[in-house]
Write a structure and sequence with these properties.
The chain has 213 residues and is α+β, with helices and mostly antiparallel strands. It is 53% helix and 8% strand. It contains ten helices and four strands, in the order βαβαββαααααααα. The protein is globular and about 45 Å long. Bound molecules: glutathione (GSH).
């Protein structure tokens, strides 16, 4: 099999999700950094591959896949070892709901282009953009803590990592990077601590990636 290529950026939380999933599935891949700081994601060359101009993108099995959750779903079906979504309908819905609480209701409100647009288009200051970021974290994480608590174990659901943990760990990293406190979420922090003991999660951490020159 040709080695998959991940169009990646070390600090991107959406790309971090896919790195974790690739590692959990034991897939060897090449990381190609798309430097978001200089706008490489908006270049004609990159948009010709991914019209949304976002990372991650994964070239695998002759496909060019975009959207981290779709990529993770592909990997879960393609490599059924260590399933990331439980088989039963109700458990599946619960794990997907936790993942969506991050992927749909926290992350898109707080990503780089949204924060930049608030400043460039509407004249908001950096402090106001930071307050916006903090607001959506402080709305989203308490809800996720309450959703997870009844069925959590060592991880957000039970005692093994699922897709919900794959999304949680990058989101917590991102919140801390923006200096938002995440100390009040014992279930989330327990899952994070246990996840980071696994090499699949640890090796995906931004500090262990190449940094574009
Ligand atoms: N829903 C997309 C989100 C992708 C996304 O927002 N990626 C960010 C990095 S985390 C990005 O490429 N940002 C570039 C920009 O804002 O210009 C996914 O899950 O893949």
């Amino acid at each position: 099999m040709t080695r998959p290529i991940l169009y990646d950026y070390f600090r991107s939380s959406a790309a971090y999700r896919v790195r974790i999933a690739l590692n959990l599935k034991g897939v060897d891949y090449e990381s190609r950094q798309v430097d978001l700081r200089v706008g490489d994601q908006r270049s004609d060359a990159y948009r010709a591959l991914n019209p949304q101009g976002l990372v991650p993108m994964l070239e695998i099995d002759g496909h060019r896949l975009t959207q981290s959750v779709a990529i993770i779903n592909y990997l879960d079906l393609r490599y059924p070892n260590q399933p990331l979504i439980p088989a039963s309908a109700a458990e599946r819905a619960h794990v997907v709901a936790m993942a969506m609480a991050i992927a749909c209701d926290i992350h898109p409100l707080n990503n780089l282009r949204v924060l930049n647009y608030l400043k460039s288009e509407f004249g908001h200051s950096q402090e106001e953009a930071d307050a916006w970021y903090t607001h959506w974290i402080n709305e989203g994480l308490p809800a996720l803590e309450a959703m997870a608590k009844p069925q959590a174990g060592a991880f957000l659901f039970g005692n093994g990592p699922t897709g919900a943990d794959v999304l949680l760990i990058p989101q917590l990293y991102n919140a801390r990077r923006f200096k938002v406190a995440v100390d009040d979420y014992p279930t989330l922090l327990r899952a994070e601590e246990n996840a980071n003991k696994l090499e699949a999660f640890a090796a995906a951490h931004p500090d262990r990636q190449q940094v574009p020159a």
